[in-house]
Amino acid sequence: MPGLFGESLAFGGDYNPEQWDPAVWQEDDTLMRRAGVNLATVGVFSWALLEPEPGRYEFAWLDDQLDRLHANGVRVDLATPTASPPPWFTLAHPEAMPVTADGVRLTHGSRDTYCLAAPAYRRAAVGIATALAERYGAHPAVVMWHVHNEYATICHCEQSAAAFRRWLRARHGGLDALNWAWGTAFWSQRYTAWEQVGTPRATQWHHNPGQTLDFSRFWSDLALDAYREQRDAVRARSDRPVTTNLMLPGYQNLDLWAFGREVDFVGIDHYPDAPGADSHADIAFGADRARSFGGGKPWLLIEQGSNTVYRPGLTLPREPGDILRSSLGHIARGSDGALFFQWRQSRAGAEMWHSAMVPHAGPDTRIFREVEQTGAALARLGELAGSTVSAPQVAVLWDADAWWALTAAGKPSAELDYLGTVRRAHRMVWDAGVTVAFAHPEDDLSGYRAVLAPSLYLVSDVGADSLRRYAEGGGTLLVQYFSGVVDSRHQVRTGGHPGAFRELLGLRVEEHRPLAPGAVAELSDGSSGTVWSEDLRAEGAEVLASYLGGAVGGKPGGALAGKPAVTRHRFGAGSGWYLSTRLDDAGYAALLARVLAEAGVEPTVPGQPAGVDAVRRHSGSLSWLFVLNHGETPARLPTVRGQELLTGTAVPAGGLTVAPGGVAVVREPVSSA
Ligand code: GLA
């Protein structure tokens, strides 16, 4: 099966020729050829140029750019420019500017200043998308559509509040049901008329957690509606695939599973926030999610930085070799290519210091040489287009509702961190050399040997049943602390925690006992926990480790002394493991090793050395093994055989050796079995 881009992997990035003049365009043509660029994302922030006044379009410059790119062999990912409305729009429609939770109405001056609930914005957005699709729907350069850019802005204006009320009526029916779901008997919040219900604007102390959860769901649905509206306008005029670039950030404003169902293929932007091996673990975390959210659809890395790691207040450079290694980290996990933000580093504007494929210093630079090297490498991997990642045996559960709910104020510990906990579980399995998929709790999980539920604070009744069926049918499930405790309305499942999983796990938690910062709970197996502990009673589960203490300092004799900390319960043909604290790294790795061993999960390559990332893609009888060495010593994999595609040489009889920081892509011998 061909890939998204036929027999090739995509290589290129955001291209903003409107920031430059014809002499630079000529150089762009030359440098793109040199670098092997074959895809450019055009028009993401071009609304003010394309529609200089309402309803009057200026397409001549874009015609020229698309024709030029096409003549140069560069395909186009054409964006609808709706993430940044022009200044005239702001003046004409002040009511379409977003209002913050504090009630401040924002104005033009940056980007992403729009309210998705404002009819004027929605009309204008569909208008420009329609005009573009009419003009370029069949343009030979255009191979995909990129609707909008990173849906992110949230608004608390009156139009948003009215749309929220409509959404709530559809979800809950009447006000009585809403009052019940949100528990408005508490703090005298009972609503007696719909007009009283608003968005969670700034208030005196904690918001109602049912309200904040529903607002997050509503906003994600609204963003999806806005996406669908543009997608459908484009689809009516073009047969090229349509997607949007989803940001995978540390905040959460979209249900990415829902977006995955509506896009023709998944597109993500990914910017690691830590250097070194952590950045590669984060690439795997992002890429595994991107692949999973589409449920089997292709996916594409639409943006990465060439040379940047963002930390708060500091942009760190990346190390030599990282451009290729990072790109292959995504491609190994199924991306149909590797694109960057952006082709040429801007000389002006808010992101003039953001890295690019052609830096300010020009092509005579390490960065551009590495870009050329990466383009050449990807050109050698065209045979991989259309192949898929070989079925992962381990799934980590991901649920937007659980994240949103856990974010509500008033939790017993501020250290209960959805993203951090899920990321850590993924990292541990990554460290063990095992490829991970993400799954929604309501999915059919029977294809996975092991499923991890690291931070499933909220689980719906359907999700709880699904996990029960999974374990009963022979699966190995690991549930971690403070999971399964509230239902989909964000109400506690009473009678002992974790209400959704007591029977499956064969236990009952009477009391949550968060640990103070710095406090350590020692466990009987030599491991230790921080952040959290629980007063747990086994009701059928086998105790694998118990608390020696549990009081501050973790001294034996605390309230938890001798009580279970880690358990395993045989359930049907499978098992439910439970971990009631945040284990130290070594203890957590050892527990996961036991869980994976019981489930019969093996690393991608037997005996895979630490620091080596190995992932397999396949297509029919062919398979390719990606080996990325993130370690500081040469990695030897004696069992690997085949043809290494980047060097075009056969793997020697003694196996594959990959230098520190090096990469290899091996077409494996077709098995005769
Ligand atoms: C995002 C945006 C780009 C650019 C990059 C770099 O991913 O989509 O327009 O701003 O970040 O910051």
Quick overview of this protein structure:
The protein is α/β, with parallel strands linked by helices. The chain is built from 17 helices and 31 strands.
What does it look like?
This protein is of the alpha/beta class. The protein is 31% helix and 20% strand. The strands form 7 sheets. The chain has a 9-stranded parallel beta sheet. Strands 14-13-15-16-23-22-21 form a 7-stranded mixed beta sheet, with helices on both faces. Strand 25 (612-619) and strand 26 form a beta hairpin. Helix 10 (276-293) runs parallel beside helix 11 (322-332) and helix 10 packs across helix 14. The protein starts with 9 loop residues before the first strand and ends in a 6-residue tail after the last strand. The structure holds alpha-D-galactopyranose. Alpha-D-galactopyranose is lined by residues 149-150, 247, 269, 303, 341, 351, 354. Residues 149-150, 247, 269, 303, 341, 351, 354 line the site of alpha-D-galactopyranose. Residues 611-668 form the Beta-galactosidase C-terminal domain. GO terms for molecular function: beta-galactosidase activity.
